[in-house]
Amino acid sequence: MVAGIITTLLLLVFLAGWAWAWSPRRKPGFDEAARLPLSDGMEDRP
Predict the structure, then answer these.
(1) pLDDT at 40
(2) What distance in Å separates the CA atoms of residue 8 and residue 4, rounded to the nearest whole number?
(3) From CA 10, how far away is CA 20, in angstroms rounded?
(4) Contact criterion met (CB below 8 Å) for 14 and 20
(5) Buried (b) or exposed (e) across 7-40, using 16+ Cβ within 10 A?
(6) Residue 7: its pLDDT value, please?
(7) What is the pLDDT of residues 3-41, one digit of tens each?
(8) How far apart are CA 7 and CA 20, in angstroms?
(9) Which InterPro entries match (predicted)?
(10) pLDDT band at 42, cuts 50/70/90?
(11) Which pLDDT value is given to residue 39?
(12) Cβ of 44: how many Cβ atoms within 10 Å?
């Protein structure tokens, strides 16, 4: 019984994380993070 409850809770947490990651509101932030390795970092230096 306890194993079923834990499995259900973990499945719900996984689905919530998946929905958060794929929400349209997060796309600009993820796009910016994806471009970080390609930037030379000069804009951060004085």
Answers:
(1) 78
(2) 6
(3) 15
(4) no
(5) eeeeeeeeeeeeeeeeeeeeeeeeeeeeeeeeee
(6) 98
(7) 999 999 999 999 999 999 999 999 999 999 999 988 876
(8) 20
(9) Cbb3-typ_cyt_oxidase_comp
(10) low
(11) 83
(12) 7
The residue type of 28 is P
**Token digits of residue 15:** 């689905």
Amino acid at 3: A
C-alpha separations of 3 from 7, 8, 14 in Å: 6, 9, 16
**Which H helix or E strand runs over 12?**
helix 2-21
> How long is the chain?
46
Joined tokens for residue 21? 């990651």
pLDDT number for residue 25: 93
**Paired tokens of 33:** 């993070």
